[in-house]
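Before the break, one more example. Copy the sequence into your notebook; we will annotate it together after we see the structure.
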Amino acid sequence: MLGSTLSFAMMALTIRYATRTIPTTEIAFFRNLFGLATLLPLILRPGAGLPRTRHPGRYLARTTVGLAAMLCGFWAVGHLPLAQAISLSYATPLFVTIGAALWLGERVRVRRWAAVAAGFVGVLVILRPGTGFTPGMIVALLGALFAGIVAIQIKQLSRFDSPDTVVFYTYAFWVPMSLVPALLQWVWPTPMAWVWLVATGVMGTFGQLLWTRAIALGEVSAVQPISFLQLPVLVVFGWWLFGETIDGWTLAGAAIVLGANGYIAHREAMLLRRAATQAPVEAAKPGE
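Here is what the structure looks like once it is written out:
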């Protein structure tokens, strides 16, 4: 998850540069096209052929929600201050925790629900309804909601298919799906824009591969909050490359959200360790 987080942070920077001349829909298409080109050599095995699945309907649902999350997230990164866009994206683990309880049957106790509630208070602090609020913030928050749903869908798909298969079919669906809105706003990229578009696809693919593996290997509500490390990385780059500063409200709200996410991750890890130590004892009881 840490490797995925850093890859997505670099992708955010390439998106910011690409949005200077390229529409968001077209960036999403090239991200998927170059991402698929990067992915194929990594997952194809000699004589093995392409990955197969028996669940195309699930992938259609996953990629539809995922494309919505991508478009919202890309637009936010390109048009909002980086710190603000990324801070609002950290609502994703809060939505993931709710979804994990409702759809995956993961047991979420009172303390974690309290952390989720605190996290949404932090989101409200960032949004500042009635004062510093802008409609673009809602776009970023919708991206976080859709991304949370995607995390749940990937966890479900990982029960049937390998991580490589999940990522392959995600891109196989995404390329034609994202081409349609891109054609409606098509702008031919400049030579420098091509560099940013290729980099977006490469960084996004590595991030997606690592993210899918992390979701498959660990409890989704535990590994997802690690992505908060993306914020300090992008705050530094936003200041260095774009002259951005982080305002007090965004900083305070982000601190609340990250604190809530950190507690959720800590609590889940503690419960997993407790379950691991108790399992042998429970297994021994029938034989006594």
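The CA atoms of residues 234 and 240 lie 10 Å apart. Confidence is low (pLDDT under 50) at residues 281-288. Try to locate both features in your own notes.
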